[in-house]
Amino acid sequence: MKKEVSCEKVFLVRNLLFFLIVLSSFTVNAQKDAWFYLRARDTSFTPSFEKNGDYLIYSGNDARLKAALKNYKIKTFKKTWKHAKKQNLKKTFFVVADKEALMTDLLQNASHLFEFGELIAEEDKKIFEPNDYGLTSTIGENLGAQVNLDYLDVMEVPKAWYYTTGSRDVIIGISDGGIDSLNIEFAGKTKIVSKSSLVKGHGYSVAESAAGQGNNAYGIPGVCYDCSIYATHFMHITTLANLVELSKMGVKVINCSWGTSRYYETAQQAVYEILENGTVIVAVGHNPDFSKTRGKSLYYPASYDKVIAVSSAQHRYENYWENIKIEKDKGLYYVQNIRNYIGLNAGFKDNDTTQVPYLYPISIRNINSAIDIVAPSTGIFRYSKLVMNNEIVMSEFNQTSGVAPLVTGTIGLMFSLYPCLPAEEVETIIKFTSTNIDDVEPNKPYAGMYGSGMLNTGRAVEMVFDMFAEKEPVKIENQRFSRWDFKLTSLSEVVMKNQQFTKDATLELTSKKRIVISENTILKPNSKGKIQLKIDPSLKKECELKLRNPSILND
């Protein structure tokens, strides 16, 4: 006997199917907006658009461009300096549209305007930018200082901001000169624990880089721009009593862009106490050049055990031939600010620019065996100049003072994302996620004196996310460690690939799930080193991840 189905039920089923198809189609389209870069042929070209709801409508007079754009829904079409080489600054556009075909259409049908295009991969869309992100902004606006923040791009800070922009519950300590707690970048989140001298605005620039307020259409965003700030002076070098005080007040990471050449055992014991309290100290290796120090000069607190010691490296030009200069008086060629070089300037043997350059020791800031990490130092925004002189100024040289707050802000983001992160594991994550620069030819004479490599904020924060989200494996890769003590505890699976722990290196690695030793991994410590791998199914999160957007867990 055939079962009868009413017309009403058929109608409901058909409509339900139609609704699901439409919803599915909408979801797919929403997730697959095309992001790409376009390079114009001329720096003066700037197309005009008018806003119509959520989309942009071309309002210019170029008929070919108008025809190429008419069949697409365009959300963003703006100039950006992001990833643009020196010769392509002011010619690069960032575009968000409904279809990838727009890029091809523009290159073919508006070839008189555009010469190159590059699609942005889905994984690279996991970024967030505030509205004061400067000239390299893409999805963010550019309502703050009109400055090049490419050093934050190289550190992949927008990738970190995808997960967190900081938390008021996480306090960053600034021990670097006086600041005004009512200043627009610090107001509402800053406490002056102990007053300090102005020191030419040193504290302003350090605090801005680490935790200056972001997304407020002013200045620039600090790395951990939604973190709180406690400021103190930089005295008590024998006992670090000012830093101990901050630690007891709940500060999670303290910035010290200063140092002394004297070692004090009382200060070393204070460092141990501070770490036991759950606070990390970041300090500079200091500024004397290598031609004088030869890797033998230690500065403190940077060189104390359990302090993260930082020095400077360069970030701007990916290849040395992009920025070859000439000394007019002597006719000598040299290069400047080349990415991952630990010195600012490098010259050529026999003045031959076809050879790989060598670093001028005088352009290398103090490095030694105590340095843990390097980060960008040249072209850093100097907020003190805006506060004191109403000037927009970027650093021209590679002093280490501007480096430390980049590391400090990164650690602030790590604690903001997972407040229960063990302080003793922070340095491990910073080093595991750094960019190995050992194979950069000009760096090789200085091996062992610039730490684990170049800071990568994005990877550091992403590793914290992966450790506790239990979605993707934690990756330890592409480093060759022959010293240092590493400790990491992960709820997620851990995969080691193209990784070495040899000689004096120690590793205490615990995973709730499993540890995978993948290709090109070498675990061969000597009698001073030690490898301990452990699976502990009883591991549990001590607190929840605090994400900028909770839906990120569903990505």
From TrEMBL:
Limits of the Peptidase S8/S53 domain: 168-441
Domain of life where this protein originates: Bacteria
Entry-linked InterPro entries: Peptidase_S8/S53_dom, Peptidase_S8/S53_dom_sf, Peptidase_S8/S53_subtilisin
Natural source organism: Aequorivita soesokkakensis
Entry's Gene Ontology BP terms: proteolysis
UniProt name for this protein: Peptidase S8/S53 domain-containing protein
CDD domains per the UniProt record, alphabetical: Peptidases_S8_S53
Active site residues of this protein: 176 (charge relay system), 202 (charge relay system), 401 (charge relay system)
Keywords for this protein: Hydrolase, Protease, Serine protease
One Gene Ontology molecular-function label: serine-type endopeptidase activity
Pfam families (UniProt xref): Peptidase_S8 (PF00082)
Family membership noted in the UniProt record: Belongs to the peptidase S8 family.
